[in-house]
């Protein structure tokens, strides 16, 4: 572990990755913003995708917890594997999410009262934190990849809870909305 952590930071690589993180985050924000206005008509039934989204988000949450447990045991290889899996599941989720929402209309919660209010609070916090956290998740990953381990560790302490919250509240929103699909 010490050999790995003693690698020299690569500022040039970090600069490139940070720019890429912001570019990707802005592009994703633009695409997701446009999905509300434009829908594609396709002859494929994607109604199974919301359940897949919940499964993928659950897998992200599990991988994030396992990644933290691995690094607490100083298992860097395990930490990298679980973070890599979390990134893979998040990417699959994003592709699936864009596919579903660019071909289907919105499903609204049909409940009333406290349940609907709770759903809207969880959904609003989920959406807001997902949008805000994405560039910081990518930059935290960039710090690790470019061997800026101390900065990576400091940033991960506040980015990890945001990412985990988003990963957990995604399936919660799905389960609360499920009767209305």
Automatic annotation (TrEMBL):
Top-rank lineage group of the source organism: Bacteria
Residues passing through the membrane, by range: 20-38, 50-70, 82-100, 120-146, 158-177
Cross-referenced Pfam families: DUF420
Statement: the UniProt record of this protein carries the keyword Membrane: yes
Alphabetical UniProt keywords: Membrane, Transmembrane, Transmembrane helix
InterPro entries, per database record: DUF420
Name recorded for this polypeptide: DUF420 domain-containing protein
UniProt source species: Oceaniferula marina
């Amino acid at each position: 572990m010490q050999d790995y952590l003693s690698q020299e930071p690569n500022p040039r690589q970090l600069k490139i990755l940070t720019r890429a993180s912001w570019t990707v985050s802005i592009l994703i924000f633009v695409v997701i913003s446009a999905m509300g206005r434009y829908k594609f008509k396709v002859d494929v039934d994607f109604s199974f995708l919301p359940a897949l989204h919940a499964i993928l988000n659950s897998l992200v949450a599990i991988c994030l917890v396992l990644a933290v447990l691995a690094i607490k045991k100083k298992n860097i290889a395990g930490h990298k594997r679980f973070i890599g899996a979390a990134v893979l599941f998040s990417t699959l989720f994003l592709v699936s999410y864009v596919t579903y929402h660019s071909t289907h209309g919105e499903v609204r919660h049909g409940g009333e009262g406290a349940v609907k209010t709770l759903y809207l609070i969880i959904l609003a916090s989920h959406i807001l934190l997902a949008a805000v956290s994405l560039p910081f998740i990518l930059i935290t990953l960039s710090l690790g990849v470019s061997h800026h381990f101390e900065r990576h560790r400091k940033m991960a302490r506040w980015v990890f809870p945001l990412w985990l919250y988003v990963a957990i509240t995604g399936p919660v929103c799905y389960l609360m909305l499920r009767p209305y699909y």
